[in-house]
Amino acid sequence: MAETGPGTPRDMSPAAIRDMAMAFQRSRVLLTAVELRVFSAIADGEMTSREVAGRLHTHERATDRLLNALCAMGLVEKAGGRFRNAPASRRYLVEGRPEFIAGLGHTASMWRSWSHLTESVREGRPAIREAINDRGDDWLA
Description:
This protein is mainly alpha-helical. It is built from 8 helices and 2 strands, in the order ααααββαααα. It has a two-stranded antiparallel ribbon. A hairpin with a 2-residue loop joins strand 1 (76-79) and strand 2 (82-85). The longest helix has 23 residues, at 14-36.
């Protein structure tokens, strides 16, 4: 029997279901920022997107778009063309801080396999087929 109750699809509105389907976008923005170490690059300072891109060796315009997306999500604040970490980002997303959420790096590495869930279900095979030691140094780290 299907589970019912608050928060189950039976009780959800179409808007809630669409929000669920699109949640990957917010997740990918956050995980990309974690992988690139955006929050650590900014730390307690204020930087332009050009300065962030220079520090991270990333494309300036793409970095600006990422920073603005993080702003829309409440993880970064922007004033006068300069970006700074929001309080929660300074506390939890800057490497070396006592409450740094290091596990997000693992979550980012899981993205690849979860992105192939449809094929895995169709074929009945694991999403990642190479052996753990064949996945490369970045994955192992």
